[in-house]
Amino acid sequence: MPTFDRAAVRNALNGISGILVTPFDAQNHLTPALQKPIVDRAIDAGVHVLVANGNTSEYYALRASEAEGMVAASAEHVAGRVPLLGGVGRGVEEACDLAAASYRAGADALMIHQPPDPFVSPRGVVAYVQRVAEAGQGLPVVLYLRNENIGMATIETLCAIPEVVGVKWASPTPLLLSEAIRRTRERGLAWVNGLAENWAPALYAAGARGFTSGLINVLPEWSMQIHAALEQGDYVGAQALIEAVLPFETLRAQDNNGTNVTVVKAALQFMGLDCGATRPPSAWPLTPEASATLEALVRGWNKAV
Length: 305
Prior knowledge:
The protein starts with 5 loop residues before the first helix and ends with a helix. It is globular. It contains 14 helices and eight strands. The protein has an eight-stranded parallel barrel with strand order 1-2-3-4-5-6-7-8, surrounded by six helices. The chain has two domains: 6-234, TIM Barrel (Alpha-Beta Barrel); 245-305, no CATH class. The protein has helices at residues 6-12, 36-45, 64-78, 92-105, 122-135, 152-159, 174-183, 200-206, 220-231, 235-244, 246-252, 254-257, 260-270, 288-304, and strands at 16-19, 49-52, 84-88, 109-112, 141-145, 164-169, 190-193, 210-213. Strand 3, helix 4 (92-105) and strand 4 form a beta-alpha-beta unit. By secondary structure, the chain is α/β, with parallel strands linked by helices.
């Protein structure tokens, strides 16, 4: 059963939503126990929300049974200390199954991935979210929007679904974000920057008070400093902190963003928290040049801590 109620989840979304990695062993088998020290460090640093089965979790590379196993393991590791969101998606039947499993595991809310189907209709997306929300047995819902192709009218309709408490906006379109917030203001939703630290100042100014982060797996304290600077209105300070981790984020953007999770997992290896390789189509391993650059970055972090 969930630990946090709707209001608590909605308020926590104004902070950092940390997307947890999924650990594998050397034989590519799920190894959930390796996630616990990452969870503990993130919570100790003050991260407000944790997310299982997000993109940094390699959700699309997981079997359905593995995704169910990871939301259950993450709930055990979090142990009610912060709200846990369970990511759900892919085909509607699988998404409904995972929503029900997330509820049973004790997730406090669902994050519904935008359907990747090549034949997506706006009204079909509404039906999809309604079905998944129903399967979640009343759990609060966060919509994950990677683009606005469904149109602003459909976004308004989605935001009116009773279970929806927030929107993860993962599009570099601050003006459209502001328009979506304006059109749905009466709902009191949480708007979350889904493009992580690099876009935090711009989307915070547009109205997204929270932001998602994969960086929290390796450097949660830094993410917390960025969030604190924004909360204080210190955009210059926030930008300086972001620029300090820009080499890390630049590595994650290589290979058409195919090293996004690769860099996180490689950094964890250098830190002594080996969570295994990423699965294809993610890039693995890093090139020798990128690996050397990352190792030097991690050594610098260790000296600074």
